[in-house]
TrEMBL record:
Phylogenetic classification of the source organism: Bacteria, Pseudomonadati, Bacteroidota, Bacteroidia, Bacteroidales
GO terms of molecular function: ATP binding; iron-sulfur cluster binding; metal ion binding; nitrogenase activity
Family under the similarity heading: Belongs to the NifD/NifK/NifE/NifN family.
EC number(s) per entry: 1.18.6.1
InterPro entries assigned to the protein according to its UniProt record, in alphabetical order: Nase/OxRdtase_comp1, Nase_comp1_asu, Nase_comp1_CS, Nase_Mo-Fe_asu
Keyword Nucleotide-binding among record annotations: yes
Cofactor(s) required, per the database record: [8Fe-7S] cluster; [7Fe-Mo-9S-C-homocitryl] cluster
Catalytic activities: N2 + 8 reduced [2Fe-2S]-[ferredoxin] + 16 ATP + 16 H2O = H2 + 8 oxidized [2Fe-2S]-[ferredoxin] + 2 NH4(+) + 16 ADP + 16 phosphate + 6 H(+)
Function summary: This molybdenum-iron protein is part of the nitrogenase complex that catalyzes the key enzymatic reactions in nitrogen fixation.
Keyword annotations from UniProtKB, A to Z: ATP-binding, Iron, Iron-sulfur, Metal-binding, Molybdenum, Nitrogen fixation, Nucleotide-binding, Oxidoreductase
Protein name: Nitrogenase protein alpha chain
Record-annotated Nitrogenase/oxidoreductase component domain positions: 90-544
Subunit structure of this chain's protein: Tetramer of two alpha and two beta chains. Forms complex with the iron protein (nitrogenase component 2).
A GO term from the CC aspect: molybdenum-iron nitrogenase complex
Length: 572
């Protein structure tokens, strides 16, 4: 039975919280109608009008008015037009910085100039927690071969070998990974040959492997994710067959990078429910967790863009089904837990999950009701990542806020329109640049976790395997969806719509705030977090209430807005 518990009404918006007999609260989604579809169309016309004809033609395909029922085709994962200031990072940053970076016991050596190494030095605030004080943790280090002019002219392979020797002598790690940057690809250093050579030279069990993830190799960091996924599968996953810990309810969480402690919160929730988390890719991870991941019985994909390849490969090789989850937002976290209960079908687990949800939702509901009084009816814009611009809309919905515009930095069409469009995506030269590895059944380890009949029965009961419906079906009709937002477009969005909060990264932060709009970083969370799971939702409600409802932003005025003549001196 459902009943309305609270209704908040503002001039352009009404929001209701529904609570069922178990105490779960659900937000009724309302679209903020203070900004009409015509207004949003005005943005597109105004922006495109300013571009040169050819550029306007290209950008036209990446700026769309959404229709959740029949998502329009968006242009995504194509190269940024030269001259446009993009939010994107490079392929090396995606491989080393995003996917491999958060693993604490691999020494990650950047083969390249020092600037590349600094760029990917875990500026996203990934956290890790070694189990004992003596456990290896190299995450606070930044290893680079620091290539100089002479290495570019005469080759850098010897310098790389020397760096590996030094790293081994100092730390005796179980594994060393090498990451290629742009200059390495240009001069033709072979990091794979060096890896093989050094593995032989050092001997023993050490695992040394390389990634051809030169910054220019793909359209964005997305290519680096794919290359990292291939490397994880070829070099780590499936090397340790020992089943440790509880043999029941064994799951992996894919695409969770422990920003601000998100993985810790999710680990807490899983443990409370009795769910056995084998590996997270790659927040708070270790080599052993990767090597052992194939002993899990279910893969859950959180960031679809950065890790769906691993989920697909593990299903083919080991028979582990995968589902999409979104543990950002309290309701979405509860939904994820219920999906796990449904998958394993064990009443004891299902009951425990309901007990945990009811327990956690008490604090969540209190925090949400408090924040909602101030946040309801406010507006947000999200331009970040390949999944965050989608997942964080759950939290804004829970706060009664509507998303006027959103888009990804490095998403593909399937991240917008859903995986159903994958067969229609054209393979271009950039995609061909990335190695496609052929994965077949692992004869010794392949073990389908569910029979065909069991999978069909779960599907008939509403469970979706290998599916992701993308960002567009969740967004309101007429909202603006923009891929690879440019700096100019960002300024126009702010000028025209003044959202109450803008979510992006450090490159955008201070420009946006100088325009009098608060910016919440969703790569690094500024200094906040965790925002995943139940406690994370509470943190987010509090932080957004504080940021979006502060009156300080209207005081942000550039000197020329209040003075007709501005004089300044250089300070040396
Ligand atoms: S684009 Fe190339 S040079 Fe720049 S950080 Fe990435 S790898 Fe280094």
């Amino acid at each position: 039975m459902l009943w309305i518990r609270y209704v908040y009404v503002q001039p352009n918006r009404a929001t209701a919280l529904w609570t069922n007999e178990k105490g779960d609260t659900t937000m009724i989604k309302e679209v903020n109608n203070s900004v009409s579809v015509d207004d949003l169309k005005k943005f597109k016309d105004e922006v495109l009008h300013k571009y040169p004809k050819k550029v306007a033609k290209k950008r036209d395909k990446a700026i769309l008015l959404n229709d959740p029922e029949t998502p329009p085709q968006i242009q995504a994962n194509v190269r940024t037009i030269p001259g446009i200031i993009t939010q994107r990072g490079c392929t090396y940053a995606g491989c080393k910085g995003v996917v491999l970076g958060p693993t604490r016991d691999i020494i990650n050596i950047t083969h390249g100039p020092i600037g590349c190494g600094f760029y990917s030095w875990l500026t996203r605030r990934n956290q890790t927690k070694p189990e004992t004080e003596t456990d290896e943790n190299f995450m606070m280090y930044c290893f680079s071969t620091d290539m100089q002019d002479s290495n570019i002219v005469f080759g850098g392979e010897e310098k790389l070998k020397q760096a590996i020797r030094e790293a081994y002598e100092l730390f005796h790690p179980k594994a060393i990974a090498i990451f290629s940057t742009c200059p390495v690809g240009l001069i033709g250093d072979d990091v794979h040959r060096v890896a093989r050579h050094m593995k032989e030279e050092i001997g023993g069990d050490i695992n040394i492997f390389g990634f051809s993830c030169e910054g220019y190799r793909g359209v964005s960091q997305s290519a680096g994710h794919h290359i990292a996924n291939n490397g994880l599968f070829k070099n780590l996953i499936g090397r340790d067959d020992e089943k440790r810990g509880d043999l029941k309810y064994r799951v992996n969480l894919l695409g969770e990078y422990n920003i601000g402690g998100d993985a810790f919160e999710l680990e807490r929730v899983f443990e409370k429910c009795g769910i056995n988390l084998i590996a997270t890719f790659s927040g708070n991870s270790t080599i052993q967790k990767f090597e052992n991941a194939h002993t899990a019985d279910l893969n859950m994909v959180m960031c679809h863009r950065s890790i769906n390849y691993v989920a697909e490969m593990m299903e083919t090789a080991f028979g582990i089904p995968w589902i999409k989850v979104q543990p950002i937002g309290a309701d979405s976290t509860a939904k994820m837990l219920r999906k796990i209960g449904q998958y394993f079908g064990d009443q004891e687990l299902i009951d425990k999950i309901e007990e945990v949800i009811a327990d956690e939702m008490v604090a969540v509901t209190a925090a949400r009701e408090k924040a909602l009084k101030k946040t309801n009816g406010k507006t947000a814009m999200l331009f970040v990542g390949g999944s965050r611009a989608h997942h964080y809309q759950n939290l804004f919905e829970e706060l009664g806020m509507s998303t006027l515009s959103a888009g990804y930095e490095f998403g593909h069409r399937d991240d917008y329109e859903g995986r159903v469009v994958i067969p229609t995506i054209q393979i271009d030269a950039d995609s061909r640049n990335i190695e496609e590895i052929t994965v077949t059944k692992d004869e010794a380890r392949y073990n389908p976790r569910k029979t065909e009949e069991e999978l069909k029965a779960l599907e008939a009961d509403g469970m979706e395997f290998n599916g992701y419906e993308g960002l567009m079906p969740q967004m309101a009709k007429g909202s603006l969806v923009i891929d690879d937002l440019s700096h100019y477009e960002m300024e126009k969005l702010i000028e025209l719509y003044k959202p109450d909060v803008f979510c992006a990264g450090i490159k955008e932060k201070f420009c946006v705030q100088k325009m009098g709009v608060p910016l919440k970083q969703l790569h690094s969370y500024d200094y906040g977090g965790p925002y995943a799971g139940f406690k994370g939702a509470i943190n987010f409600y509090e932080d957004i209430e504080m940021i979006a409802c502060s009156t300080i932003w209207k005081e942000m005025k550039a000197p020329w807005e209040s003075e007709t003549y501005v004089e300044a001196q250089y300070a040396y």
